[in-house]
Amino acid sequence: MSDQHLATPTGDLRRPTLPDPVSVLTLLKPITWFAPMWAFGCGIVSSGMTLQPRWPVIVAGVVLAGPMMCGTSQAVNDWFDRHVDAINEPGRPIPSGRIPGQWGLLIAIAWTVLSVVLAVTLGPWVSVAAAAGMVLAWAYSAPPVRLKRDGWIGNLAVGISYEGLPWFAGAALMLGAFPQPHVIVAALIYSLGAHGIMTLNDFKSIEGDRRTGVASLPARLGEANACRIACLVMTLSQLAMSALLGVWGLPIYGAAVAGLLLVQLLLMLRLLEAPRLRAPWYNGTGTTLYVIGMLVTAFAIRP
Hints:
Blueprint: H1 3-6, E1 7-8, E2 11-12, H2 21-28, H3 34-47, H4 55-80, H5 82-88, H6 93-96, H7 103-120, H8 124-141, H9 151-175, H10 181-201, H11 206-212, H12 217-221, H13 223-247, H14 251-273, H15 275-300
Helix pairs in contact: 3-4, 3-9, 3-15, 4-7, 4-8, 4-9, 5-11, 7-8, 8-9, 9-10, 10-13, 10-15, 13-14, 13-15, 14-15
């Protein structure tokens, strides 16, 4: 039989029906796991609890925050964004066919179930945080809700999922109870600031967003305006955190957060010159300083 008879409009029938492990790992995007794992670690630090007796539980929590919860969100997003990715990044596992058929959806569902099961073993408050994260992950990408269609709301949902909920979960895991008010305030502030980080991340998909009706801020407002908004959101959140640390009697820590912000402001000036070109560069420089400030804050607010 000739190759012509084996081919179909949707691909080659000789392609394996099961995805290979490397493609599955690529779908789960390990590079994105850092943010929630770091926030989870900040929650652990901010609890003020001793680490040594609880290492197995801590490791399980880090796995939950990164490979499981964040991995789930990435699989869900790639499945429902497969048509957008075919325009922006056709080499991704699903549009390229390396994750064939319905496997992208099946992996997203399986990882959701496994994440919830693991969360239940870590206590009620971790379970609450995980459940909220799963709801946001599916609501962000899946119709009919599809929060990502609005850059304002969608980025807020991601900021809460990647920063606020893991921070809360880390503190709750260590305390075995609802975290202290200072912890909740810090987690919320850094979640709001992460809205700006998510806006910068949207620069890579402007064409696909415009062609498919996704109103990300760069697609909706233009590159320059979206970049200004991202910088403003990140700046105001850190200013608020620095000021609060001073009010709480922790001026040295507040000054440290302000110092990290000052360096970011210098980097933002360069970012604003070419937002689309330099967004990845800023995510590797300015965003690093942002997350260092999170850890400084976590140490500051320990009881």
